[in-house]
């Protein structure tokens, strides 16, 4: 019951906020807490430029990768969540991002976030579960979480687009 109360309180904070940067920070912080991960990045899909980019990423100001690059790109292409518990042995992993930041990735979990038209608008990526590897319980919970936050994220992205036009 405690987890449901925490999620409800988080939902109230999320719905009360219209600032893109703050919403992304809230989503990332809550995701880390829910699955006990060290870092979280929320990649936004830019189909026009064939990019995935972050406005908020723990440890780095901004990450930009191609729509077909890395584990996040594979998540986008296959439209399925991914668990990678040995990233340095996975050909999709982009070690240059770790090298740039000085961070060492031990495990990764990614989940697509769908908009109201059922198109992927973002990818939630969490790194380094604090105890053990990411598992199917984490995956199921993050799929629920991605569905839970999708409406708020879509609204704030639409609002951000209007402000930038």
Write the layout of secondary structure elements.
Elements: H1 2-15, H2 20-35, E1 37-46, E2 51-57, E3 64-66, H3 70-78, E4 82-84, H4 95-101, E5 108-114, E6 120-129, H5 136-164
Helix pairs in contact: 2-5
Describe the overall structure.
By secondary structure, this protein is an alpha+beta fold. It has a single domain (2-164), classed as 2-Layer Sandwich (Beta-Lactamase). It is built from 5 helices and 6 strands. The protein has a 6-stranded antiparallel beta sheet with strand order 3-2-1-6-5-4, sandwiched between helices. Strand 5 and strand 6 form a beta hairpin. Helix 2 (20-35) runs antiparallel to helix 5. The longest helix is centred in the last third of the chain and has 29 residues, at 136-164. The protein starts with a helix and ends with a helix. The relative contact order is 0.17.
State the main characteristics.
165 residues; globular; alpha+beta; 6 strands; Beta-Lactamase
CATH topology descriptor: Beta-Lactamase
* Relevant CATH superfamily: GAF domain
Q: What strand order characterises the main sheet?
A: 3-2-1-6-5-4
Give the CA-CA distance, first to last residue.
Answer: 43 Å
SSE string, helix = H, strand = E? HHEEEHEHEEH
CATH class equals Alpha Beta
Oligomer: single chain
Task: Note the total helix count.
Answer: 5
Rough outline: globular
> What fraction of residues sit in β-strands?
15-25%
Radius of gyration (Å): 15 Å
The major β-sheet equals: 6 strands, antiparallel
